[in-house]
Specification:
CATH superfamily: Electron Transport, Fmn-binding Protein, Chain A
Largest sheet: 8 strands, antiparallel
Helix content: 25-40%
Oligomer: single chain
Shape: globular
Number of strands: 8
Distance between the termini: 23 Å
CATH class: Mainly Beta
Order of helices and strands: HEEEEHEEHHEE
Structural class: alpha+beta
CATH topology: Pnp Oxidase, Chain A
Length: 149
Amino acid sequence: MNDDECLADVRRFLEAQEVMVLATVSADGVPHACGMHYAPRADTLYCSSLPATRKLQNIADNPNVGYTVYHLADYSERRDTKLVQGLGRAAVVDGEEASAARELLAKRFPWAPELLLARNAVIRIDPAEVLWMDMSSRGGRRHVLTYPS
């Protein structure tokens, strides 16, 4: 598998899934992981958070994050597991970028109250490295993509 094929697989997979586990680290090194609904735009992921959360404080102190998006319906399908594990940098965005991201999130998650999205902080995650794993083919496939900084 070459980088272009992998990138196409990763983008299709991220479009098809809805929830990631986002890992942040506090200024004093305490890890924190949380489930987050996200919306992809090309290789960037957007999510929103209530104000004054641990994840927002951690991102302000240390923008380096990890995230995992996976598909495993149940244990009997473990040989069909697909996942993206990413390392990247997160930032809280505002202005036009935040407005566009809120629209993207509202379109992807029409059940999310508009008022909630309007007052939430918007987080942008830019990947630095992504591991794509697809166990559905014989022997499984793994490929690492490195993004320019």
